[in-house]
Amino acid sequence: MLLRASAYSASVSNSLRRVLIPLHAGSAPPSSNAFWAPPQPAYVDFLRDMYRLHEKKSPAHASKKGNTPDAGFKGFLDSQLTWDRAMAEALSLALSQHGHQNPALVVGIMGSGHIRFGHGVPHQLGYLGVAKVASLLPVALDGECRHLEAGLATAAFTLPNKATPPSEPPR
């Protein structure tokens, strides 16, 4: 049996981010933005942790968005929420355009931070009225797989560890 699948892309251009994000920058919390559903507090906490990791890896990261760590995080949060909404909109549109042909399945491939615990894109999809959302998440066999938390995803899978190249013999 041959299955036909359509592919769609969701992208957020730099020019769109420059227009959307400043609309409420400095004047209101992200929950007041009309472009996306208010984020759950646990998602904001997760994104704050991710932002701190970015800061540690690249101290210049925070200065890109403003002079204070709060301003830097706010820019990061707004950017993530914009991406979440754009991907949710693309999936919702694909479902509404082609739902009559195959109402059971529309697949989105994205970074795990956008779907963990039903936050991000699944949350935005719910806000758009898409009730049935499932997530499949890769987890590291030697890490997160050993400590899976309830609600992380609908299902999880592992991949084999990367083979390490043999070290050169001593000379």
Distance between the termini: 57 Å
SSE order in H/E notation?
HHHHHEE
What is the strand tally? Answer: 2
Q: Spans with pLDDT under 50 lasting ≥5 residues?
A: 24-32
Q: What is the tally of helical segments?
A: 5
Computed structural class: mainly alpha
Query: What is the 3D shape?
Result: globular
Helix content: 25-40%
Average pLDDT over all residues: 78
Q: Tell me the β content.
A: under 5%
- Order of the strands making up the biggest sheet: 1-2
What's the main sheet like?
A: 2 strands, parallel
**Rg computed from alpha carbons, rounded to a whole number of angstroms:** 19 Å
Description of the molecule:
The protein is mainly alpha-helical and 171 residues long. 38% of the residues lie in helices and 4% in strands. The protein is built from five helices and two strands. It has a two-stranded parallel sheet with strand order 1-2. Helix 2 (41-57) crosses helix 4 and helix 4 (69-98) crosses helix 5 (121-127). The longest helix is centred in the middle third of the chain and has 30 residues, at 69-98. The protein is globular and about 65 Å long. The protein starts with 13 loop residues before the first helix and ends in a 14-residue tail after the last strand.
Layout of secondary structure:
Layout lengths: L13 H7 L20 H17 L2 H4 L5 H30 L22 H7 L8 E3 L16 E3 L14
Parallel strand pairs: 1-2
Helix pairs in contact: 2-4, 4-5
